[in-house]
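Table 4 source record.
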Amino acid sequence: MKRPPLFLRIKIHERKVLPGCWLPLFLLLPLAIVLLVVLSPVILVAIIILRVRGRGKQLPLVLRITFGVLCSMRGIRAACDLLCSTPGLRVDVSSRNERVHISVI
């Protein structure tokens, strides 16, 4: 069974070594879910108003597909699988003077 990531560690090296920042992702995930639940009626009302006024067909195709995927069970499952596959991800970006290290734990 896959587990969602717990922490995001960001460390920035410039000329001096700065302390890293640990972000608790397990606290941000419930906040994101609540935000999605709260905003979904607003998005639905906006889409209905645009359809009634005849501008619904003018909505970008990407927006309509994204809303359809977010409201389907397959879309929720795919987002969960994507989120659960991120532990172990490491990103290192460096230039001459700076280095940024991001790791998902």
